[in-house]
Amino acid sequence: MSDAGPQQSPPRPKASVVKYKAALRSAIRRNAEEPEINFLNITAMLDIMTIILVFLLKNLGESSASIPQSDDLKLPNSVIRTQPSQEGVVVTISKSQILVDDDSVLKLPSRESQIQSGVGARHKRKGPNDLYITPLGSRLQEARKTDKAVRSAKQLDPNLPSEAIIIADGTTPFRTLSEVLFTLGQSEFGKYHLMVIQAKTRAE
Fold it and tell me: What are the boundaries of each domain within the chain?
């Protein structure tokens, strides 16, 4: 009886190189991160630029540069670089008349007469030396009532002074401008914005 040696286990089948590489590629794909997007959405950017352009054009149309000028109304020049106000009652002083929000209030006499007595005695409350312009004051009081009602609706203090935007011709006599400002003050308008045209400086 011969001694039997230890039994050897049968050799394990080796995985083929092809299957191993396939499994490795699958594992790499599963663990790979999503690729980054390296391009911009041009369509969305164009939409945004269009909206911004429309907004800028709308604001430009409401600026002081859009005020129509003529032989009867030429704005003075200024080098002050503040932005114009967009709120308030608009009082226009042309060569021939005074308007409130595009509604004519009174006709003006000649420039020589305005230098001496302003808008004229017949439009004054107390004679030629008075500064209060009666028809302008009546129209401003109506605007003041409307402004107070709007402030109350917005839950703001209605007793605060109203604002006025003054558009005056560059040749308006100081006497006439003073009478308009005095009448505004008497009508509870306490803040004024005088519209001018931006002049070019020497540096420009």
Answer: 68-198
Using a 10 angstrom Cβ sphere, with 0-12 exposed, 13-18 middle and 19 or more buried, the burial of residue 40 is exposed
Tell me: the pLDDT tens digits for 39-97?
Answer: 566 777 777 777 777 766 665 545 544 556 666 666 665 444 444 444 688 999 999 99
Residue 114 phi/psi, 5-degree rounding, is -65, -35
What tokens does 177 get?
Answer: 């401008």
Stated as kind and residue range, the H or E segment containing 129 is none
- Give the tens place of pLDDT for each residue, 110-152: 999 999 889 999 999 888 889 999 999 999 999 999 989 888 8
Contact 189, 161 (CB under 8 A): yes
